[in-house]
Amino acid sequence: MPNIFLILQVVFASILIVMILMQPKGTGFARSWGSSGSSFTRRGLEKVTFRATFIVSAAFIIVSILQLVF
């Protein structure tokens, strides 16, 4: 059973790294301090990637906790 959690943890970590690297540059605090007049809302694929990153990170944390328990 612990081997399954370890494999899932490696898979989720790899997916999480790729999803973070796919995030566009200039978002977050850096964009809010700039003088850009663009909208701060995420749309389309950027929105899907942003939400999926949180879902994958939550799955990674859950699997990590389950690995500690079992």
SSE blueprint:
Layout: H1 2-22, H2 29-33, H3 45-69
Global shape: elongated
Count of individual helical segments = 3
Mean pLDDT: 84
Task: Please tell me how large the radius of gyration is.
Answer: 16 Å
Low confidence ranges: none
The CA-CA distance between the termini, in Å, is: 8 Å
The tally of beta strands, per DSSP, is 0
Order of helices and strands: HHH
Number of domains: 1
GO cellular component, one term: plasma membrane
Family: Belongs to the SecG family.
Subcellular location: Cell membrane; Membrane
Function: Involved in protein export. Participates in an early event of protein translocation.
Features:
70 residues, mainly alpha, single chain, 3 helices
General description of the model:
It is a multi-pass membrane protein. It comes from Candidatus Woesebacteria bacterium RIFCSPHIGHO2_02_FULL_39_13. One of its GO terms (cellular component) is plasma membrane. Keywords: Cell membrane, Membrane, Protein transport, Translocation, Transmembrane, Transmembrane helix, Transport. The structure is a single chain. This protein has 70 residues and is mostly helical. The chain has one domain. It has helices at 2-22, 29-33, 45-69. Helix 1 packs antiparallel against helix 3 (45-69). The relative contact order is 0.19. The model has no long low-confidence stretch (mean pLDDT 84).
